[in-house]
Amino acid sequence: MTEGNFVDYVKMHVSSGNGGKGSAHLHREKYIQKGGPDGGDGGRGGHIILRGNSNLWTLIHLKFKRHFKAGHGAHGSSGRSTGADGEDIYIDVPLGTVVRDSETDAVLFEITEDGEEKIVVEGGMGGRGNWHFKSSVNQTPRYAQPGMPLEEKDITLELKILADVGLVGFPNAGKSTLLSVLTSAKPKIADYEFTTLKPNLGIVEYRDFQSFVMADIPGIIEGAAEGKGLGYYFLRHIERNSILLFLIPADAKDIVEQYEILEDELRRYNPEMLDKERLICVSKSDMLDGELKSEIATILDKDLKSEYLFISSVAQQGLTELKDKLWKMLND
């Protein structure tokens, strides 16, 4: 998935269909006197339905089509014939899509399973025909119900990536490099900050043809929860990850301090994110000799409560141990 093709935020206007009118027809046929009312019901208006599709990873297919309108229900006719229902419109979205009302910002629902269907706006009910209203005191009703009007709404679709492991770290911490080494993903890699501008996904292959999904988001800086840097715009992508993998480079001035800053940003954005399992990786550890690594390990043992590993994506150090640890955490 290239950065230019990744779209995770779309606004659109959706409109259902009007319900068809009921018929006020009176039966007229040769040799049949006073045939009575036989007007049929109107058809239901079409719905706008969102459907989960596991083959989609982005909302790009909705980027340039912002208006969706369902079909109207047909009117009822003679012989108690019910009008046809309006055409339903199905909109396929990737799993992890949250649907909000654009006016109130209230969450309407979210799509998390393949094939799951949710109605955004319902079509109007069809009106009842006059044969429903006949009685002993009103044998020839000459009226029928009109169809119910359509519904229309402005909605916002937000994609929150569903991944097993989410990479968290400051810009240039080595997240994209790790993703490129563990998976077949080809994220942009360079020696300057904010190389990654869009989330990237990759599938990590494990033993016996098993696998899990890893997500890389743009780097977090201090103040991201208030909108600094790329801000909280991408923090939502790690809300759905089962495990948070913190990457802190070995050449950081203070590894513990950087971890605490990242942890605080997540807490300010959404305190529930700290309930997730987490693992800390000291990246670029090929720069460390045995003595330095031992000193850092002593500090981390004293000041950190979470487990940690030393890895190097470039030198391929500690990656097998990392995959084993993540797989164990996911399955425990």
Topology of helices and strands:
Layout: E1 9-15, E2 48-52, E3 67-69, E4 89-93, E5 97-101, E6 107-111, E7 117-121, E8 152-159, E9 165-169, H1 175-182, E10 200-205, E11 211-216, E12 243-249, H2 255-269, E13 277-283, H3 290-303, E14 308-310, H4 319-331
Summary keywords:
332 residues; 4 helices; six-stranded mixed beta sheet; 14 strands
Describe the overall structure.
This protein has helices spanning about 175-180, 255-270, 290-305, 320-330, and strands spanning about 10-15, 50, 65-70, 90-95, 95-100, 105-110, 115-120, 150-160, 165-170, 200-205, 210-215, 245-250, 275-285, 310. By secondary structure, the protein is of the alpha/beta class. It has a six-stranded mixed β-sheet with strand order 10-11-9-12-13-14, sandwiched between helices.
Quick overview:
With 332 residues, this protein is an alpha/beta fold. The chain contains four helices and 14 strands.
The H/E string reads EEEEEEEEEHEEEHEHEH
Instruction: Report the helical percentage.
Output: 10-25%
What are the low-pLDDT stretches, counting only 5+ consecutive residues below 50? none
Instruction: Count up the helices.
Output: 4
The backbone outline, from C-alpha atoms, is rod-shaped
Q: In what order do the strands lie side by side in the largest sheet?
A: 10-11-9-12-13-14
- Helical/strand content category: alpha/beta
Q: Span from first to last CA? A: 30 Å
Radius of gyration: 29 Å
- Number of DSSP-assigned strands: 14
What share of the residues does DSSP label as strand, in percent?
15-25%
Largest sheet: 6 strands, mixed
What do the pLDDT scores average to? 85
